[in-house]
Specification:
mainly alpha
């Protein structure tokens, strides 16, 4: 992988992790355009680095919220912060189950299968279109909501279905306040990313050659900066009900991906 490819893939990851257009789907399609059917197994370190970069950008954007949650937890009593943390943990369970027991089946859906990616982008488009027209009742995230949103996050492990699009759309369709929906969506993925990095470290999978340093460095920086911009922008877009434009985008890209897949 060249430095130029690393910059492009880093930007794509940083933007699409937060914008509701599917980071996994776009990485698959960009990989095909760059001449590779997918990010190769030896580039697992690259994948982890760009995901860590987007996780760090989330921490920066929500640093005050995270600080309040941590301080609340150290009070060692049931309060708003403890309840929020409990719901975050609940929301993680479906994705953890899928990741642990269906990892091989999920991997088979990756690898340049852009017809499938295009089809799932159309599903994302429908979700975003419906969410933009849902009534905002201003409800908080309840325990039951957290479980349902968690199931949406697990489904979004499929390439082409946007994680943020699925979780935010599900939250809004449940009547949750749009600002709280975006906040919950972005914070609920942090433990999963950190947990995945920890698992790969324990498994000894994260190795790299010395000459890959600059590739990883520029990928990290580009993903981090793009993530900061996309996360901040997305929060405002959700509040202003501007998801339809992403529904249109996903529809166009989805159709193009399907056509390209049929022609290739």
């Amino acid at each position: 992988m060249t430095v130029f490819e690393a910059i492009i893939l880093g930007i794509v990851q940083g933007l699409t992790e937060f914008l509701p257009v599917s980071s996994s789907g776009h990485l698959e399609m960009v990989g095909v355009l760059l001449g590779s059917t997918s990010l190769p197994e030896e580039n697992l370190m690259f994948t982890i680095v760009v995901h860590f970069a987007t996780a760090l950008s989330t921490i920066v954007v929500f640093r005050k919220d995270i600080a309040e949650i941590v301080m609340g937890l150290f009070q060692f009593k049931w309060n708003a912060e403890t309840a929020f943390s409990f719901r975050i943990i609940l929301s993680m369970i479906p994705a953890v189950i899928i990741g642990l027991f269906f990892e091989k089946e999920l991997e088979q859906l990756f690898g340049g299968k852009i017809i499938f990616v295009g089809s799932m982008l159309l599903v994302t488009a429908v979700l975003l279109f419906l969410a933009d027209r849902a009534t905002d009742t201003g409800k908080p995230v309840t325990t039951l909501n957290a479980v349902i949103i968690g199931i949406a996050q697990a489904i979004a492990m499929l390439p082409g279905i946007s994680r943020s699009g699925a979780t935010i759309s599900t939250s809004v369709l449940l009547g949750i306040d749009k600002g709280k929906a975006a906040r919950f969506s972005f914070l609920m993925v942090l433990p999963l990313i950190i947990g995945k990095i920890g698992k790969d470290l324990m498994d000894g999978k994260l190795t790299y050659e010395g000459d890959e340093f600059w590739v990883l460095a520029v990928a990290f920086i580009s993903a981090f900066i793009a993530g900061l911009i996309a996360c901040t922008w997305m929060i405002q877009l959700v509040k202003k009900s501007k998801l339809t434009m992403f529904a249109i985008y996903c529809s166009i890209v989805g159709v193009i991906a399907i056509i390209a897949g049929l022609l290739l």
